[in-house]
Amino acid sequence: MVRRTAPLGLRTRLIAAFLLVAAICAGTTAALTYQKARTAILTQTQDTAVSTLRDQVEQQQLELPVDQQQLQLSVGDIAKRGKPHPWTIFGEYGTLRASSNGTPATSGAVTEALRRRVTANPHGAFQRVEDRSGNPYLVVGMPAVFNQGGVRQATGIVYFATMPLDAEEATVKAMVDAAQQGAVPGLAIALIPALLAARSVLRPVRDMRRAAQRLGRGRLDTRIEVRGADELAGLARTFNETARALEQSVAELQEAEARARRFAADVSHELRTPLAGMLAVTEVLDEDAEHLDPDTAKALRLVSAETGKLAVLVEDLMEISRFDARAAELNLDDVDLAEAIGKTLERRHWDDGRVVIVTDLPPEVRARLDPRRFDVVLANLVGNALRHGGAPVRVTVGTGPGPDGEGDRLLIEVADSGPGIAPEVLPHIFDRFFKADAARTRSAGSGLGLAITQENVRLHGGTLRAGNGPANGAVFTLDMPLEARA
C-alpha cells in the first residue's frame, strides 16, 4: 500500500522557496568569488615567479659552451633569489643536468609538454601540476638567450623553477571555509525576512479563507480589510465587491420570496371564507342532483368536485405558509402506532376491501408524536402510493437505533406495486408543485402533498427518503425519533 505524503503548507513552501533562493544566491556568489580570488592569487604568484626567474636568468654571465661546474654555480645562484616563495632550480644543457637541491636528475614535475613550450618560446612558459601526494606546484621554464642584432637567440641552456603553492592553496581553502561557515548564519538570518514575507502573504490569504467560511455560513455582510495596492489587495477588493453583490442579490431574492409567501398566505386566507360557503352550497345541490336533468346534474357534480379540489389546495397553501412562517407547532401525545395507522386507513375508507393495503404493524409500538400531523403524513404517503403506484400498498412499522447508535427510532416504510420513480424525478420528488411524471398516471392533487409531508416529518425531528424497491415500485421511508420534542 502506497502511503501518500501530506502536502506541505503554503507557509512552509514560501519559507523553503525563500531559503532556497538565498542559498542559491549565496552559493553562486561564493563560487564566483572563489573562482575570481583563486585566479587572482595564482596569477599574481605565477607572474611574480616568471618575472623573477627571467630577471635572474638574464643576469647570469655564462661562457658558451658551459661545463658542469658553471651550470651548477648558475643554478645555485638563481635558487637563492626565489620569489615570491623559495624555489628549487633545475638546469639543463645538452646532456648536462644540475639542481639546487643536489639531485643529479631534473624534477618529475617538469613535463615534456612544458619542455616543448619552453623550446618554442624564448620568453619562457609555466604550468601548474600536482605531485603524487596531490600537492600543487608551479613549474616555470625559462631559456637562457642572448641578443644578436636585436634578435633573441637561444643558448641551449634552460632553467626550470619548481615552487610549491601550499600557501596559495591554504589561502584559497581558508576563503572556502569562511564561505561555508558563513553560509549557515546567513541562511539563519535569511529565515527572518522569509518569515516576514510569508506572513505578509499568508495573512491576507488567511483573512480571505475566514471570510469565505463566514460567507458560506450565511454571513453575507462579511468584508475583508484591504491593505496596500498589490495583487492580494486587488483580490480582497474583488472579494468584497462579490460579497456585496451577493448580499444584495440574496436580499432581493429573500424579499421577493417573502412577498410571494405573504401573497400565498393572504390569498389562501381570503379564499377560505368564500370557499366554505361554496362547499356548503355544492353539498346541498349534490343532494338534489338526482332530481335535475342529466346535463345539469353532470355540470353540478363537476362544479362540486372542482370546488373540493380548490378547497384542498387552499388548505395545503395555508399549511405550507405556516411552515414557511415557522408558525407550525407540535401537539405531542403518546400514540399507539397500530391504532393510529388503522384510524388513518379507516377515515379514508381504505380498509373497506376496495383497495389492497397490506400492513405489518407490530403490537405495543408506541411513540410520542403529534397525532394530527402523523395522520396527514401517513395519509399523504398511502394516498400517493395508491394514485401513482398501485395496489397492493405495503405499510411496515418497525423500530431501530439512530444513526449515532443511541436512542430508538421509529421506522415506517410505505411501498407500492407500481413502476417506480424515474431517476430524473427522484431529486425533485419533494419539491413544491412538482408533478412531472411520465411513467405514472397524471396526478390530480395540488403538488404540495409530499412537500407538506416532508415538513411534518422534519417538525418531528425525522427524515423522509424516497426511492425504488428491488422489485420496482416506489418506497418511502420515514425515520423519526420515538420521543419527538416540541
UniProtKB/TrEMBL annotation:
Enzyme class at the top of the EC tree: transferase
Highest taxon in the source lineage: Bacteria
Entry EC number(s): 2.7.13.3
GO CC, one annotated term: plasma membrane
Keywords for this protein: Coiled coil, Kinase, Membrane, Phosphoprotein, Transferase, Transmembrane, Transmembrane helix, Two-component regulatory system
Occurrences of domain HAMP (ranges): 199-251
Catalysed reaction equations from the record: ATP + protein L-histidine = ADP + protein N-phospho-L-histidine
Cell location: Cell membrane
InterPro entries (alphabetical): HAMP_dom, HATPase_C_sf, HATPase_dom, His_kinase_dom, HisK_dim/P_dom, HisK_dim/P_sf, Sig_transdc_His_kin-like_C, TCS_sensor_his_kinase
CDD domains associated with the record: HAMP, HATPase, HisKA
Domain Histidine kinase: 266-484
Coiled coil: 236-266
Presence of the UniProt keyword Electron transport in the record: no
Molecular function, one GO term: phosphorelay sensor kinase activity
Signal sequence coordinates: none
Protein name: histidine kinase
